Amino acid sequence: MSWAIRTEGLGKSFTLHLQGGTRIPVLEGVELEVAPGECVALAGPSGAGKSTLMRCLYGNYGVGAGRILIRHAGAEIDLVTADARLVREVRRETLGHVSQFLRVIPRVPTLDIVAEPLMARGLDREAARARAAELLARLNLPARLHGLPPATFSGGEQQRVNLARGFAPFYPVLLLDEPTASLDAANRAVVVGLIQAAKAAGTAIIGIFHDTEVRDQVADRLFEVQPMPAAA
Amino acid sequence: MTALGYNFGYLDENTKRMIRRALLKAVAIPGHQVPFGAREMPLPYGWGTGGIAVTASVIGTGDRLKVIDQGADDTTNAVSIRRFFAKVAGVATTESTAEATIIQTRHRIPETRLREGQILVYQVPMPEPLFRLEPRVAETRRMHALADYGLMHVKLYEDIARHGHVAISYNYPVLVGGRYLMSPSPIPAFDNPKMDRMPALQLFGAGREKRIYAVPPYTSVRSLDFEDHPFQPVRADAPCALCGSRESYLDEVLTDDQGGRMFVCSDTDYCNTRQTHREAAE
Amino acid sequence: MSALLEAHGLNLRFGAVPALEDVSIEVHPGEVVAIVGESGSGKTTLLRVLSGMMRPDSGEVRYRDPDGAVHVIHAMGEAALRQLHRTDWGFVHQNPRDGLRMRVSAGGNIGERLMATGARHYGRIRTEATEWLRRVEIDPERIDGMPALFSGGMQQRLQIARTLVTRPRLVFMDEPTGGLDVSVQARLLDLIRALVADLGIAVVIVTHDIAAARLLAHRLLVMRRGQVVEQGLTDRVLDDPQHEYTQLLVASVLAA
Prior knowledge:
The complex is a heterotrimer.
Chain A: E1 5-16, E2 22-30, E3 33-34, E4 39-43, H1 50-58, E5 65-72, E6 75-78, H2 84-93, E7 95-98, H3 110-120, H4 125-138, H5 155-167, E8 173-177, H6 185-200, E9 204-208, H7 212-218, E10 221-224
Helix pairs in contact in A: 3-4, 3-5
Chain B: H1 13-28, E1 34-35, H2 49-58, E2 64-69, H3 76-88, E3 92-93, E4 102-106, E5 119-123, H4 137-145, H5 150-163, E6 174-176, E7 180-182, H6 192-195, E8 201-206, E9 211-215, E10 221-223, E11 250-254, E12 261-265, H7 268-281
Parallel strand pairs in B: 2-3, 2-4, 4-5, 5-8
Antiparallel strand pairs in B: 1-9, 6-7, 6-10, 8-9, 11-12
Chain C: E1 5-14, E2 17-27, E3 32-36, H1 43-50, E4 58-64, E5 70-72, H2 78-85, E6 89-92, H3 96-99, H4 106-116, H5 122-135, H6 152-164, E7 170-174, H7 182-199, E8 202-207, H8 210-216, E9 219-224, E10 227-233, H9 234-239, H10 244-251
Parallel strand pairs in C: 3-8, 3-9, 6-7, 7-8
Antiparallel strand pairs in C: 1-2, 1-4, 4-5, 9-10
Helix pairs in contact in C: 4-5, 4-6, 6-7
């Protein structure tokens, strides 16, 4: 098995119907391939489309051209043409995503937010919560916060909840968007440890790391995302 | 002899034929309400016009008619109806349950067990058992068509929740033949068990609402209930002050202005018969 | 057919006005599908057609029962459809008054579907009703209270309990948070989200509230003038809307 996820001729543009149909090309001909256990850091200037590429890979953005192939449950699946139910299944079992910001669900306690993807896979509530608590503890989120909804948490606390949620299940492919942006040195080290452990376990990781120190510790190589010339 | 100028049984033959057709249909679908064209009767609605129309359609020269109101043969309503049929059909009348072939009743079933060949005709003010729960007539018909009777149980549930028991002492809803929800007319719940597998034919006439329904002999009639709150017919806990019966349904009679009262059988024929037997035995 | 519900080529006109134009939809077990669009877009009509309450001019709605048998909804008899609506299906109305019996106690409201499907043990019905009141965060002490005395949010939660008590596999919801205050809406949405996830219920929900759709739905259908103009994974449709109308819809919402 040579790759866990790869793109072929991936292209993405936005058409802004509300601005008179302005078309903004962002990605074109992206050929990215990541092997199990490999960590690839996306590089390129701000606005080059790194975040857009991440969102395309997760299926959060639609793709205009090309394919996104992922190995899921022993088969190659093209996420671009997969129907919504299959994409959900891939997200549940194979493809994890730690976004920069936590989307808070009202009233749901932190522990349940982290346990949710485990329970979606069929783990029973107690086991899922135990695993969630373990990860939150490792990320230095005090136990007294586990029962609270993270709406009132600081940016760094929310990011750690997000990280715990992303690392709690084992995903064969993991997308990390600025995973250490709001963290202090101690917690950055924890995240580096989590990433290295995931790699060792065979997870293919694609990340955006503005923190070059972290990037150098985890990334095996850089993948340059080229800014597109402005549309005519 | 029938009174001059009237057809036998007061109603014309075409009307009787129409009502008999409705009755046949009603017997064929036990508990199902069949519409019929009620005719003007020489009595106002509410005085038993539905029952009279049914009796008029089934009565023959050889019949012997008994009429009771609240169990009594001697109340105004019972006496008037009995006289009416004596006049317009010239049939024999009786106060004896055992001797009667047709018994028209308002609000009671006689205590004496009815037998095959007898017909019990009920006067019914409101034939629709769901009308207080579902005001839309079209919807109640649909509920009957689909045997969708959860709502009736909701009413029983509400009673138990509020009062600890089902607070329906008369007109207690029944399920006929395991299929149709039926109003037994405003008889006391005490009488409901008598309807079950009764050897006599039971016919129900609602004049104002223009509906006929029936329970053929030996048909199952079950009072709705819950497994843990079974149907319980209620009776005043006293013997009849006149005949001493502990089985019959009792009326409470006030005897003075000082709160004096006594309980006596509501079924006058039953009570009289027992008193006569007791005197004979003494 | 692996879907719970499948509709193909639905068309319906009200006089000259097209209410549905060639609409197709599939709903799979445990899947929450939101139908969004502005008033008059045909979303409520679609819900009524899917649930058998309204007949399309053409097209077919098929449903798979728990035994795997497939039924054409508009060819089913009324009795069978009613039976379906009080067992394997549920319908949550926008106005709780349309879905509740206002003169029947909370417990009686919850118990009705149980009794309609043959429950005849008062004690067990009561226990079940108590449990469901707890699940929808209504004080079980109020089991004998009349819904007319409940707040709007409580009434809506009671309607949900009454609908879910028979463990339906598919529930239709028509703007379930429509008439409620914003703070009450959030609580109700979260409750629906948790119950649906816990019980693995499939839901078709009609809403014009994009935030509600994002919170609840796995998949989104955007309707306009009787047509489905865009559909897909909820976050894809909302974060990268393709159709002009969807872009307008998303742009007009504050931080959905």
